[in-house]
Design a protein that fits this description.
Elements (H helix, E strand, L loop, with lengths): L1 H32 L10 E5 L1 E17 L2 E5 L4 E6 L6 E2 L4 E5 L1 H23 L8 E3 L4 E6 L7 H8 L3 E4 L3 E7 L9 E6 L2 E11 L2 E7 L9 E6 L4 E9 L2 E3 L6 E5 L6 E2 L4 E6 L5 H25 L2 E3 L4 E4 L7 E3 L4 E6 L3 E9 L11 E6 L2 E20 L2 E11 L9 E18 L4 E3 L2 E8 L2 E6 L1 E5 L3 E6 L6 E5 L3 H17 L4
Helix pairs in contact: 1-5, 2-4
Length: about 500
């Protein structure tokens, strides 16, 4: 049996060799018809330099990941009746994810109605007339005034953090950098403008020292001050600031008149400014806002009561589904994640030798293993600066944005070809036409029955084409070196041996 199998293999190999030789003879005849000179070996053909577009590309493979997703949480405490979706389901906006138990909705509505009744009672018993004056909540000295007549109080607070700044403890501080050894309690002198006042070191840590002085009516914050020790030795400079600043808040009305000046000492309850358009006080407005929020929640719950279903708000893929039938879910608890199908990320790994030319914004052609006869377009979103070394080879992750495709699924594998450089209207020859001798690139130009070597300067070069910057003109005929008949035959023999090693068929 083994002898017959060996005989059959030998016969098949001889048959393949005869077919290979016949094919090579046919290729030689065809090559001659396509422009091979009778003076050239069979492995050398000719091509004309032509104008076209040349591109440099690099490839990377990876997997599809979601680009956008949203975690959907429960707005209320309620009981789930049935769960209609599963992880991995593709849903459209409005599709039912789960149904809600009616009794749990009734209980939630009843609870909110009780809260609404309490707020209504509070509003009806509250004086809604605000005050035209804004008073100081603390005792201290006015150090900054941000408020200006005819400005909204809310705008001033948004821009500056408060309407005014009050030094609430009657002290100012100055922070200096000093390499001198200072400790809390040390006596120093603080000088600014025409003043020299006594100060005390409050804290000193890592070369930063805070000095405290008593506040005065003419002492203004943001004034530069210098600090010296008890012997007059200079320690450092800083700027005066409130030791415990109090920013006065205000939420409604328009400034009418400022009642104080910078440097004034005020007591708690003193008028700081007057305002207009102050119809409602803060407590009244807060209750109105709370009531509005309750009304909106009640409206949503009553709508849900009529159709007790949790539905998808957008198209997407259901993931991380946490809902279980006949189980309570708390307010703000996560229910499920919805992965958008509008776009995806392809996280492709690029070799360190090719990553230098890859930048954000470049176009990429993408082929998915699941449907490898189709090509899709993507765009490089970002290139990671952190590489991963595996087996001595470092690769970098390139994130490519892929538009939504109906049959695309997460974790699908794909290969991306990224155009790293491109040039139009370039003079191009086959890359096998370019030879190198002692560092000089040249091509062999055919003119009638003669050939001559012409030095050339190269531009972009890829696996199949080379751009010629100098040395050739469009239409020049050059030789292209291919494989010899013997090399082709050996390639086919190797392929045949590989197939035989794979089995006896």
């Amino acid at each position: 049996m083994k002898k017959k199998r060996k005989t059959r293999r030998l016969f098949l190999i001889l048959l393949i060799l005869l077919l290979v030789l016949a094919a090579l003879a046919a290729v030689s005849v065809l090559a001659g018809k396509k422009g091979t000179s009778a003076l050239l070996p069979s492995n050398i053909t000719t091509e004309q330099a032509h104008i076209g577009t040349i591109r440099l590309t690099t490839e990377g493979s990876g997997f599809i990941e979601p680009a956008d997703d949203v975690l959907v949480s429960s707005d209320y405490t309620m009981k789930i009746d049935t769960v209609e979706a599963e992880n991995g389901d593709i849903v459209a906006a409005g599709d039912v994810i789960a149904t809600v138990d009616q009794d749990s909705l009734d209980d939630q509505i009843s609870l909110l109605e009780d809260q609404l009744s309490e707020i209504n009672s509070s509003i009806s018993g509250l004086d809604d007339s605000g005050s035209s004056s804004l008073t100081s909540p603390v005792t201290g000295r006015i150090k900054r005034i941000f408020a200006r007549p005819d400005e909204y109080l809310s705008d001033i607070v948004a821009d500056h953090g408060g309407l005014m700044e009050i030094s609430a403890d009657g002290k100012l501080k100055v922070v200096i950098k000093s390499d001198r050894s200072l400790k809390p309690g040390d006596e120093v002198t603080v000088s600014f403008l025409s003043y020299e006042v006594d100060g005390t070191v409050q804290s000193s840590d890592n070369g930063e020292c805070t000095v405290i002085i008593e506040d005065g009516s003419n002492y203004q914050v943001d004034t530069e001050a210098s600090v010296t020790d008890e012997n007059g030795v200079f320690l450092g400079t800083g700027y005066l600031a409130s030791n415990h600043p109090y920013l006065v808040d205000g939420t409604y009305g328009i400034v009418d008149e400022i009642s104080v000046d910078i440097g004034d000492h005020v007591d708690a309850g003193s008028t700081l400014l007057t305002r207009r358009n102050y119809t409602y006080n803060g407590t009244y407005l807060t209750l109105l806002e709370d009531r509005q929020e309750l009304m909106e929640q009640l409206q949503e719950l009553r709508t849900l009561q009529r159709s007790p279903e949790i539905t998808a708000k957008t198209d997407g893929i259901v993931s991380d589904l946490a809902l279980q039938e006949q189980t309570m879910i708390s307010e703000d608890a996560p229910m499920y994640r919805l992965i958008s199908t509008d776009r995806f990320w392809l996280k492709a790994e690029i070799d360190e030798l090719d990553i230098a030319g890859v930048t954000a914004g470049q176009s990429a052609s993408i082929v998915f293993d699941a449907f490898d006869t189709e090509t899709y377009e993507g765009t490089v979103e970002k290139v990671s600066a952190l590489g991963t070394n595996t087996g001595g080879v470092t690769r970098y992750t390139v994130t490519i944005e892929v538009p939504g495709i109906e049959k695309l699924k997460t974790s699908m594998s794909a290969t991306a070809t990224i155009v790293t450089d491109e040039k139009e209207n370039a003079l191009i020859v086959p890359v096998d036409a370019v030879q190198t001798d002692d560092g000089q690139n040249y091509v062999t130009v055919v003119e009638g029955e003669t050939q001559r070597a012409v030095p050339v300067t190269l531009g972009l070069v890829n696996n199949t084409e080379a751009e010629i910057l100098e040395g050739l003109s469009e239409g020049d005929t050059v030789t292209v070196v291919g494989k010899t008949d013997f090399e082709k035959m050996m390639d086919m023999m190797e392929q045949s041996r590989a197939e035989f090693r794979g089995g006896d068929n």
